[in-house]
Write a structure and sequence with these properties.
With 237 residues, the protein is an alpha/beta fold. The chain has one domain (7-236): Carbamate kinase (3-Layer(aba) Sandwich), CATH 3.40.1160.10. It has seven helices and eleven strands. The strands form two sheets. The protein has a nine-stranded mixed sheet with strand order 4-3-5-2-1-6-10-11-9, with helices on both faces. The protein has a two-stranded antiparallel ribbon with strand order 7-8. Helix 1 packs across helix 2 (69-93) and helix 4 packs parallel to helix 6 (198-206). The chain starts with 6 loop residues before the first strand and ends with a strand.
Length: 237
Amino acid sequence: MAIKYKRILLKLSGESLMGDKSFGISPEMLNHYADQIKMIRELGVEIAIVIGGGNIFRGLQANASGIERVQGDYMGMLATCINGMALQSTLEGKGVYTRLISAIEMRQIAEPYIRRRAIRHLEKGRVLIFSAGTGSPYFTTDSAAALRANEINADVILKGTRVDGVYSSDPEKNPDAVKFDTISFSKVISMGLNVMDMTAFTMCQENDLPIVVFDINNPENLSKIILGESVGTLVQV
């Protein structure tokens, strides 16, 4: 069975881990993601994951509580480590070998990020979970996903969302919004569409790294993308 993408970076939002809760981590959603990841690992795909922390703490909202922006961003990075530990535990419970890697040093729970070591883990079939963003404030987990994907020479970024692709406007607000099967980076920018934050998006554009935006809640979508089926929206140069 031929696979289209040999090495991927899967971007998941922290909010997606909430399921139908208002915050925190849903065991059902953890299992949902872990089952999909295990399925594509068994196809021979090398997988790295970047997960957000918005289900626990979002740095950008810290100002409302009087917390300084930089401090809030670091708190958000720690939230991604909690999510990474949860996903790691669930994956390993299903027999998937993993490595949790943190951009902020915390030796007791995660490896520090060393590019060559990370690539070696991928080559050995281990699923990488990158946590703590880039390790610096003012950068989102989208930026971390774009940076790590380029560093490990990923073939594509797969961005799992609640919607099934990129639309001309918000499909949850506008029933007449048109979905794109493929779209160029420049057209996304000219139309002002929200795919990733601009720092991350520009990094992918400059390095010719395609992005697939798809509905992660459909359990078949991830494996379909890997096998070359047209799912979601492909953003490319």
